[in-house]
Design a protein that fits this description.
Elements: E1 2-4, H1 6-13, H2 20-31, E2 37-40, H3 41-51, H4 63-75, E3 79-82, H5 88-99, H6 105-117, E4 121-123, E5 137-138
Parallel strand pairs: 1-4, 2-3, 4-5
Helix pairs in contact: 1-2, 1-3, 3-4, 5-6
Domain PIN: 2-132
Pfam families: PIN (PF01850)
Keywords: Hydrolase, Metal-binding, Nuclease, Toxin-antitoxin system
């Protein structure tokens, strides 16, 4: 299962990004494949927050456009909405024990735990995912 991080979605959907071409190529290829794409609510909400924010994006997307992106991803036959399992906090805690606890690693540990619980691989440009022992991580733009 492919588990994308928000940074790749932002690069893929923002033609002004320096990483757009590689991120878009990867993202569109992922959707034309057969492997499930695991979407975390934290990633989807982060995408909506950042891509529509006028102080973050030079040209923010209208909310209607951004939410339609999310709707299309969620409704695709290969998409799976990831939800924390009963051991999620334990898995997250164990991942953070080896990588450092709290702070900016917390959202990454949450996504990494979702990937572990669902047998997925994190796709992200954020090298912090390499700090989590046992988590499969790929930077498709490298």
């Amino acid at each position: 299962m492919i588990v994308p991080d928000v940074n790749l979605l932002l690069h893929a959907m923002n033609a002004q990004s320096d990483h757009h071409e590689r991120a878009w190529s990867w993202w569109s290829s992922a959707w034309s494949g057969t492997e499930h794409i695991g979407l975390a609510w934290s990633v989807l909400l982060g995408y909506l927050r950042i891509t529509t924010h006028p102080r973050i994006m030079p040209v923010p997307q209208p909310f209607d456009v951004a939410i339609n992106d999310v709707r299309s991803w969620m409704s695709a036959p290969i998409s799976v909405i990831l939800t924390p399992g009963p051991d999620h906090l334990h898995v997250m805690d164990a991942l953070m024990a080896g990588a450092g606890r709290g702070g900016d690693l917390t959202p990454d540990a949450h996504l990494a735990a979702l990937a572990v619980e669902n047998g997925g691989t994190i796709y992200s440009q954020d090298a912090d995912f390499a700090r989590f022992h046992g988590v499969r991580w790929i930077d498709p733009c490298a």
